[in-house]
Structures are given as structure tokens and as C-alpha cells.
Amino acid sequence: MGKIVVKIGGVASDNLTEEFFDTLADWQAAGQEIVIVHGGGYYITEMMEKLNVPVTIANGLRVTSAQALKITQMVLIGQVQPAITTVFQQNGFSAVGLHASCGQLIQGTFIDKDSLGYVGTITNIGTGMINDVLAKNHVPIIAPLGLTEEGEWLNINADTAACKIAEALDAEALYLITDVPGVKCEGEWLEHLTTDDVEQLKDQEVITGGMIPKLDSATSALTKGVKEVFITNSIAKCGTKITKAKVFA
What we know:
The protein is an alpha/beta fold. Helix content is 39%, strand content 25%. The protein contains 9 helices and 16 strands. β3 (57-58) and β4 (61-62) form a beta hairpin. Substrate binds at residues 40-41, 62, 155.
């Protein structure tokens, strides 16, 4: 059976549609195994503001102090993940929440502790726990948190986590669900890009802002075995498909 990894936002528990779950059910009926990676930035920011903890973003990453890390853990594992898992269960899927401490799932190291705090980069994905959950016909719902070798927790970018998990699982497809229907160029939503196209559009500054880390992660996943990546606002619609090699008619 093939595997499909889907990254959804933290607010997904409020926004997942019947169409979304119908598509997942169709994939499962076709023999595909589904892995979900979720974010939580909106709710983390909301909680930090409530607790009067400063929110600082640097190069698209949330600067994560020790206090901010505790809030991130609390929100992702205590609020967002249970909400998403519950919605999956209400829609007929057996879902299991996973995070870094489950079988050394996401291992990592600090990017730059002096400037970013407890923000991490991934060094290894422990696929054993994921495959165990899949073997029991459950859908793993994974929070983007990591652990260092010394047992320190790390805040990981959710798009990066999804791409690394897709790489480790040798996934057939990776869907990065965002709030736009794909990648736009000259006013048009693009149906297909290659990894070469991505670099060209970055050089031309057509691709900017938050789309850059998504596409960088997508390119990395494609060069390491993932067959195709979709950036879209709906898994029922392809959005922009990204592949390693050009598709010839």
C-alpha cells in the first residue's frame, strides 16, 4: 500500500469539510494509508497574547523562548491535536494522536538557540510508531514537536515536519494544505511546477513570503523520494502539483 501525507493547519478542526473526509475515505478504499501532520500557529499566538508573552517571528519561524515552548506544547498536544483527532473520529476514522515522545518520532537539534530559542531542525524521523499505527488501520495525527538527544523539546515548522515525514515514509504524495489554491504566477494559479521552475520563480521573486519555505520543503521532499507534492486549499482539488521531473505530453 502507498502512503499519502497531508499537512493541515491548526484551525483545521474548525474547517475540515465533508469533501475532505470523503476524499480520505476514497483514498483508504483504494488501499492508501493516510498520515496527518498538523500545525497550530494561530492558537499558539492566541494563547501567547492572552498570557502577555511576546510573539516574535524571524525568517518565517516563531522565536521560541522556554516559556513560549511550554505554551506551544500545551496548545499543540493539549488543545489542537485532541480537537483534530475528535473531528476525525466523528467522521468515521480511527485516529491516534502522536508527538515527539512517542517512539522517538521526531528527533532534532537546535537551529540557532541564541537567536531562535527552542526552534529545531529535524535530524531523523522514527517511522516505527507511525507504521505501527497504520498497521492497525488508524490514522496518525502528528504534532510538529521534536526532541534532541538530550531530551530537550523543540518547536518544528509544520510544513518541514510534514515533508520530512513524507520523505521517511517514501510517500507517494504529500499535500500541503494552505489558505490559497496553489502557487500564483502573473495572476494565474499554476497547475504544475517542477523543482527547476520553483528555483527560477524564487530568483524572479515571483514566489515570496510564506510560500518560500513551503516550496523549499516540497523541493527537498521530491529530491528524496516523494513522488509528487500538492500545494492547495483542498485535497479534493489538485491545486499546484510539483514534481521533480518535467511532465511531457
